[in-house]
Amino acid sequence: MKTINARFILFLITSFLALSLTAAQPSAPNDLTMTPLIPKPVSINNAEGVFELKNNAVVWISENTPGMVKVAKYLTDRLNPATGFNVIILTSGTIPTSNCILLETNISNSQLGQEGYELKITAENIRLAANTAEGIFRGIQTLRQLLPASIESNTRQEGPWVIANGAILDYPAYAYRGAMLDVARHFFGADVVKRYIDLIAAYKMNYLHLHLADDQGWRIEIKSWPALTEIGGSTQVGGGKGGFYSQDTYNEIVQYAADRYITVVPEIDMPGHTNAALASIPKLNPDNNPVKLYTGTNVGFSTLQTNKDFTYEFLNDVFRELAVMTPGPYIHVGGDESHVTKKEDYIPFIEHVQEIVSANGKQMIGWDETTQAALKPGAIAQYWAKAENAKRGVSKGLKILMSPAAKAYLDMKYDPKSQLGLSWAGYIEVDTGYKWDPARMVPGISKENILGIEAPLWSETVSNMDEIEYLLFPRLPGYAEIGWTDSADRNWEDYKVRLGQQAGRFKFMEIDYYPSVKVPWK
Ligand code: ACM
């Protein structure tokens, strides 16, 4: 009896110790390879021991350039609220020997390209190295996910802020990884767009496509045609008050995105999807009489006049002003669902628009229908509906942006019970959204023909950020991983576990997500 009692007491003591250790270190990791990162990096190696970020930590940057100062500030802004520390940035002097995050650029590693990075975590410090400040920015997103989920809190949380030692090497599979937001069917203010940018940036996406004009609204100020926003911006689906971005506000959004290494692609959809412009500018109509504003959700009933000189004068003004607000290479001209434009009018129209975009120094992106026209290499076709259109684009030497509606449309319902979203392309549960390979989607279109992937969020059924988040999450991280991680390194069984472990992060980021039963939430 005596021995059993002693054993039992020993058991109690060890259990108590184990429990109190777990309580003190709620997420203390012991293996870097077990960290549930999304997107999954190219390689992760574990080493013994841990790094702990403590008070008085320092972020040290290897070069005092505006870009590096900005990413370092971005990093300390992620670290300070939750840790309660005052992590400072050092731009010169000796490198601290401990409690330090070193950000090092210009490492001339061709494998990493423009966006890749390497991370080395030791007990003394974290070294994040890349060729560019952009690579450092992507690596910071990984660093966020290596820390406990509570790092995402805006208020002070208990540490410890511990990361397992080891090394990560990482770079993207595709150059273009994007999401679209339709601000035309419902208008969303700059605050919503900025949060959307922050959410896509957290998963290393690098393009934001803004659908700025459609039948229901024109959302970008064009100074030569103020009626576009005064009239065309005055309503939205359901008849609400709509809205638009002044050029100043739009430029602020573009800069906010650029600070997160996200390029904005503006879209003015044409020749269909143009009722808001036709309602604003009488001369765009055949009889010079404006049409009525439209607040329904039908498509395919409007068209610009393809045989009127005025149409092209107007478009030249629009694209000239838009090009000035667009530091990125692309302008999107829509071109989808122009059901009331005759094919013999549609084709020369798209070719003329391509000339205008090109004369304003930009490359054209169009939905897949635009490949019917003689598009020039450098133009991009966005595949959403018809594989034959995308294949025709490849035969013309175009790169394809993959957004197959049945897989990648963020506005499709998850299942028949979903309150938000549409279902014309099918239901897209989280596994359906994840289980596809852009390079195997269309026979004859392989990786070298593909610029990247984009997940569009059309806004017929959503009118505020909570509703946007519900459609965005948890599908968005999957699209980000499809774009970033080589398809050979991806599978749903592994991904769903990592996704389930993001739940804590979603909570601290205050994301309203759909709690799919397909995902083992932790
Ligand atoms: C589209 O969904 N009409 C491109």
- Strand elements, count: 16
Helix content: 25-40%
Could you name the CATH topology of the largest domain?
Answer: TIM Barrel
Strand content: 15-25%
CATH superfamily assignment of the largest domain? Glycosidases
**CATH classification, class level of the largest domain:** Alpha Beta
Please report the number of helical segments.
Answer: 16
The hetero compounds bound to this protein are: acetamide
Average pLDDT: 95
Named CATH architecture of the largest domain:
Alpha-Beta Barrel
Global structural class: alpha/beta
Q: What does the radius of gyration come to? A: 25 Å
Kindly give the count of domains.
Answer: 2
> How is the biggest beta sheet arranged?
8 strands, parallel, barrel
Quaternary structure of the protein:
single chain
Q: Please state the overall shape, judged from the principal axes of the Cα atoms.
A: globular
Low-confidence runs of at least 5 consecutive residues: 16-27
Distance between the termini: 42 Å
List the strand order in the largest sheet.
8-9-11-12-13-14-15-16
